[in-house]
Design goal:
Elements: H1 30-44, E1 48-53, E2 64-68, H2 75-82, E3 87-92, H3 99-107, E4 110-113, H4 122-133, E5 137-139, H5 157-165, E6 169-180, E7 183-190, E8 194-195, H6 202-216
Parallel strand pairs: 1-7, 2-5, 2-6, 3-4, 3-5
Antiparallel strand pairs: 6-7, 6-8
Length: 224
C-alpha cells in the first residue's frame, strides 16, 4: 500500500445526486445542509474551540473516504466544520427509524447502515459507491459506535466493499477533546491518506489504519 492523495474520481454536480435508480431518496438537500451547518456553528461555538490540522491531506476535487475516531455525537458536526467540502456519513440505521429523523438526516448526507442485517443495507452500499464515483467524500466510522477515551475494534466490511470497487484514498482522522475552563478544546487532525493496492491484506490494512487513527487521536497504537 502507498500513501498518496491522487485519485481518478473527480467531483461532479451533486444537485441531482439522488436521481440514480439505486440511490433514489438518498442524497443531500443543499439548503438543509447549509442552514444546519450555520446554525450548528452558532450553537456549538460557545462550548467548543476547534483546531484543525492536516487539511493538506484532503483531496480538493476528487473522492475520498474519511476514517475518524468516534468518541461522542459531537464528532459529526465538528468534523463537518473541520472539512471544507460537504460529506456523506454512514450511520447506524436506528437513527433513521423515525420518519422526520430519516428525512432530516438523509438531507444532511446520512446513509443508514444495519451491520446486523447486511441484506437490508445493500441500498446504502450502492449509494456509497455511487457518491464516491461522483467524486464525493464519505465518512465511515470504523469502530461503528462510540468508544470514549479509548480505541474500539475496527470493522472492515464496508471498507472492503469500497476497496473491491474503487481505488481512492482513505484518510485517517484523529479527534481529541480536552476540557479547558468553560469550553472544550477539540483537535481534528487529518492524517496522510492510504491508497491501497488490490493485493493488500484487509486484516493488515485495517490494523494499520486503526493504529494511525489511534496515534492521531492521542492513543497508543500498541494498545489495540
Amino acid at each position: 500500500m502507498s500513501r498518496s492523495g491522487i485519485v481518478p474520481q473527480r467531483r461532479t454536480n451533486t444537485q441531482a445526486e439522488n436521481g440514480d435508480s439505486g440511490t433514489a431518496g438518498l442524497g443531500r438537500r443543499k439548503w438543509v445542509f447549509r442552514i444546519t451547518r450555520a446554525a450548528g456553528r452558532i450553537i456549538l461555538s460557545p462550548f467548543f474551540a476547534l483546531e484543525v490540522r492536516g487539511l493538506e491531506n484532503l483531496p480538493r476535487e476528487t473522492s475520498f473516504v474519511l476514517l475518524p475516531k468516534h468518541q461522542r455525537w459531537e464528532d459529526i458536526p465538528l468534523l463537518s466544520f473541520a472539512t471544507p467540502r460537504p460529506l456523506y456519513y454512514v450511520a447506524k440505521y436506528e437513527l433513521f427509524q423515525n420518519g422526520f429523523a430519516r428525512w432530516y438526516l438523509t438531507a444532511l448526507g446520512g446513509l443508514p447502515l444495519n451491520r446486523k442485517k447486511p441484506l437490508e443495507s445493500r441500498r446504502t452500499m450502492k449509494a456509497v459507491i455511487h457518491f464516491l464515483r461522483k467524486g464525493e467524500g464519505v465518512v465511515i466510522f470504523p469502530e461503528g459506535t462510540y468508544y470514549r477515551g479509548r480505541m474500539g475494534p475496527g470493522h472492515a466490511g464496508i471498507i472492503r466493499l469500497v476497496l473491491s470497487r474503487l481505488t481512492i484514498p482513505f484518510v485517517p482522522v484523529g479527534i481529541r477533546y480536552c476540557r479547558t475552563g468553560l469550553r472544550t478544546r477539540v483537535q481534528v487532525q487529518f492524517g496522510a491518506p492510504f491508497v491501497v493496492e488490490k493485493d493488500t491484506s484487509y486484516n493488515l490494512l485495517l490494523k494499520e489504519m486503526m493504529g494511525e487513527i489511534a496515534r492521531l487521536s492521542g492513543f497508543n497504537p500498541a494498545d489495540l
